[in-house]
Write a structure and sequence with these properties.
With about 100 residues, this protein is mainly alpha-helical. It is about 60% helix and about 0% strand. It has one domain (about 25-95): Cytochrome Bc1 Complex, Chain D, domain 2, CATH 1.10.760.10. It has helices at about 1-20, 25-35, 50-60, 65-75, 85-95. The chain binds heme C. Heme C binds next to helix 2, helix 3, helix 4 and helix 5.
């Protein structure tokens, strides 16, 4: 019984640590500048809405990451094309949601 409880817990800790080391915030900010900076900026509207406005709009919503990913990548939406990989796009979206 105890082992059954501890194993998933250990997996969670490992996941949390892995996420923390593989995608530090500064790397995601650089990624955002590189891949999305042509149209998105921190505070000012460029072609697209500023990160902080988007963060405020989606923060706290259960499906925020999935919705934002769809908005950014859905070929039927009106988001312009960009060259970031799905993993990089998700990393930037996670970073946007940490902004205040
Ligand atoms: C060529 C310009 C361009 C690039 C590059 C670009 N975007 Fe956008 N983005 C836009 C425009 C224009 C909109 C607003 C239109 C819309 O709602 O689809 C937008 C909207 C969004 C939205 C919805 C925001 C909201 O508040 O509703 C998200 C999320 C988003 N972009 C993420 C990204 C990410 C992540 C990247 C980089 C991987 C990126 N975008 C790169 C132009 C761009």
């Amino acid at each position: 019984m105890k082992a059954a409880l501890i194993a998933p817990l250990a997996a969670c800790v490992a996941l949390a640590l892995g996420a923390a080391t593989s995608s530090p915030a500064y790397a995601n900010e650089a990624l955002a500048k590189d891949k999305c900076g042509k149209c998105h900026e921190m505070e000012k509207k460029k072609k697209g809405p500023p990160y902080k406005e988007t963060a405020a709009k989606f923060r706290g919503k259960a499906d925020a990451e999935a919705t934002m990913f769809k908005l950014a990548t859905d070929p039927k939406g009106d988001h312009p094309e960009f060259t970031a990989s799905p993993d990089d796009t998700k990393a930037v979206i996670k970073w946007i949601l940490t902004l205040k």
